[in-house]
Amino acid sequence: MSRNTSIILGLALCAGMAQAQVDTRRATIRGSQGDEGKCTIEVRVDVTAEVEVNGDMGRIRTLSGQPSSWVRFECTGPVPRNPVDFRFKGIDGRGDVRLIRDPMSSRGTAVVRIDDSKGGSEGYTFDLLWRGGSDYNSGPGFGRDRDNRFPGRRNDDRFERDDDRRGRFGRNNDRNNDRNIVTCASNDGRRVYCDADTRNGVALVEQHGNVPCRQGSTWGYDRRGIWVDRGCRADFEVRR
Q1: CA distance between the termini of the chain
Q2: Whole-prediction pTM
Q3: 136/149 Cα distance (integer angstroms)
Q4: 58 φ/ψ angles, rounded to the nearest 5 degrees
Q5: Burial class (CB in 10 A: 0-12, 13-18, 19+), 177
Q6: pLDDT per residue rounded down to tens, the chain (240 residues)
Q7: Considering Cα of 191, then 192, then 198, then 201, what sign does the dihedral take?
Q8: Rounded to an integer, what distance in angstroms lies between the CA atom of residue 218 and that of residue 211?
Q9: pLDDT at residue 85, rounded to an integer
């Protein structure tokens, strides 16, 4: 057998092993899909794995160690492509568990990375929580842009509430006000685009949080939509 043939066979064997370390599962839907949603996920991981959720489908990829496995994947409904708020809550597990991709900025895909430096497999449980959103993925497809990552953050499952006429999630509760309001949030500190028809201009209506929203610096708009950056979170009026 030639050296080149051996290399090709070795690469093919490695590719087959990598494919064998991917496990896909559809969520068990319990309860009803309302304004708030939650997925509870439990997996077993030996060394390193990534859990990817898109709509009602989940995929666990083993990056190192023995193959990871699903234990539980229960949701109140599919994760929407366009949630207006999203939270990750680590519940159980001895290693490091962190959110590395948020569906708010990656076409509806959430990715959680698990790193376990101790020997033997360990059970990990975490929740994905969201508010709002109506465009749901369903089926075996997963999001793109795998390089669009950002450092994860731990959050609890308490959603702040605002009793003003227009809440922090962009709802306009004044029935006599027909303005087109869009909420856009740079929750991960990086630039995020929010879909909007900006041909007639955009105006800042209300800022949320402590990070100043300054046009041209931390927010702006172009033909792609409204963008926010460096932690800016605000409501914008899209002029008609």
Answers
A1: 70
A2: 0.52
A3: 21
A4: -125, 150
A5: exposed
A6: 555 555 555 554 444 444 448 999 999 988 766 678 899 999 999 999 999 999 899 999 999 999 999 999 999 888 888 788 888 888 888 888 998 888 877 778 899 999 998 888 899 999 999 887 755 554 444 433 333 333 333 333 333 333 333 333 333 333 334 679 999 998 878 888 998 899 989 999 999 888 889 998 899 999 889 999 988 999 999 988
A7: negative
A8: 9
A9: 85
Place of tokens 């568990």: 97
- Which neighbouring-strand residues pair with 204? 236
Strand ranges (E), the chain:
22-26, 28-29, 36-45, 48-54, 57-64, 69-75, 85-92, 96-101, 109-115, 122-131, 181-185, 192-194, 202-208, 219-222, 225-228, 233-238
| b (16+ CB within 10 A) / e for 15-51 | eeeeeebebebebeeeeeeeeebbbbbbbbbbbbbbb
pLDDT for position 190: 87
Percent helix / strand / coil, the chain, rounded to 5: 10, 40, 50
Residue tagged 């953050």 (tokens):
153
Kindly provide the b/e burial profile for residues 186-201, where b requires at least 16 CB atoms within 10 angstroms of the residue's own CB.
Answer: bbbebebebebebeee
Contact 169, 183 (CB under 8 A): yes
Q: Cα-flanking dihedrals φ and ψ of residue 114, to 5°?
A: -120, 125
Which residues on adjacent β-strands are paired with residue 136? 80
| Contact indicator for 161, 112 with CB cutoff of 8 Å | no
